[in-house]
Task: inverse folding
């Protein structure tokens, strides 16, 4: 487990430093949680809801975290579960919902004017065409840069099954993007 | 978080993996144009912290007041219970309601200077009629019994053979009965 994660946990267990420890955790992980949710849901508002829900759950359950896995793995497990739960509750295959957001910045550090190009639209459609589980595997691997071993812990799926799922997802996206 | 300008080993592995599956796909997967409102993550941190903050100090103060008031109330009830304190009725009607018939009759006898029998005759304390009448019958029976006993004793004296009395016995009999 990363040193910073150990410090966060130690400080969180002390009532006097709990708030500060949680602030560090939020700064460390909120962006990762948000971007996973955003790429899964393709919508800022929904991603924001899921991110807040995940962070509140982390606060409520962090004292029960037994350190049997890395903190990041535990946080991603909560994130993926909340995202899937959100999709099921919404009862819809989330559609392309990227509309103009006034006063925005990109996921890179530089702020750029909003202009969703054709390429991004094609990518959105391709990712949305994937079954939820394949979409999850593709995003965790390609964008979240997660190792298969960690992904196996997060999704409780074997590494072999994850590699196969990723392969199928990439092929489908390629087909969708090139034929769109 | 994915940073398009950063190429590390992990990123390189992922790129080479996807190129081996779909050689022409990589250029379509850049989503750095996905946008978030400016200052979103700072605002997110504040929002989440406000949701997980413990109750603020005014609420603590309010809870303390409620707690102390509850303790005082419980203490008073307990103290009163320990003293077996009966509720006090201040109204005359309430005091009368708590009295039984005997107590009522005693008050009326004192205040009106009449006997219980007379009160019963006047229609007061109807429930006590049988009890008082029984008491009267018992008293009469006792007087009769005492009278009968005295008669029996007298008969024993006059049944004696007066002729058999000696002079001293005559003298004693006359002395005790006639005082001569």
Result:
């Amino acid at each position: 487990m990363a040193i910073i994660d150990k410090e966060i946990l130690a400080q969180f267990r002390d009532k006097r430093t709990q708030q500060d420890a949680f602030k560090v955790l939020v700064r460390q992980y909120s962006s990762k949680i948000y971007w996973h949710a955003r790429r899964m849901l393709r919508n800022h508002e929904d991603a924001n809801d899921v991110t807040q829900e995940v962070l509140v759950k982390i606060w409520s359950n962090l004292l029960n975290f037994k350190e049997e896995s890395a903190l990041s793995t535990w946080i991603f497990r909560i994130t993926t579960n909340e995202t899937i739960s959100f999709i099921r509750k919404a009862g819809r295959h989330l559609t392309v919902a990227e509309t103009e957001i006034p006063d925005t910045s990109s996921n890179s550090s530089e702020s750029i004017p909003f202009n969703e190009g054709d390429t991004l639209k094609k990518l959105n459609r391709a990712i949305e065409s994937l079954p939820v589980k394949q979409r999850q595997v593709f995003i965790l691997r390609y964008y979240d840069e997660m190792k298969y071993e960690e992904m196996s812990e997060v999704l409780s799926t074997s590494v072999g099954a994850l590699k196969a799922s990723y392969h199928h997802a990439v092929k489908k996206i390629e087909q969708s993007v090139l034929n769109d | 978080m994915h940073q398009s300008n950063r190429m590390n080993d992990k990123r390189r592995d992922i790129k080479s993996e996807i190129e081996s599956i779909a050689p022409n796909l990589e250029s379509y997967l850049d989503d750095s144009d996905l946008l978030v409102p400016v200052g979103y993550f700072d605002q997110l941190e504040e929002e989440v912290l406000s949701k997980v903050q413990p109750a603020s100090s005014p609420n603590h103060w309010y809870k303390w007041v409620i707690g102390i008031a509850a303790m005082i109330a419980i203490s008073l009830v307990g103290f009163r219970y320990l003293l077996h304190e009966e509720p006090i009725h201040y109204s005359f009607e309430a005091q009368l309601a708590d009295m039984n018939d005997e107590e009522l009759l005693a008050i009326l006898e004192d205040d009106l200077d009449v006997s219980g029998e007379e009160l019963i005759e006047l229609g007061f304390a109807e429930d006590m009629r049988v009890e008082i009448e029984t008491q009267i019958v018992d008293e009469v029976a006792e007087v009769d019994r005492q009278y009968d006993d005295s008669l029996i004793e007298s008969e024993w004296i006059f049944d004696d053979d007066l002729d058999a009395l000696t002079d001293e016995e005559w003298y004693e009999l006359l002395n005790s009965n006639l005082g001569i």
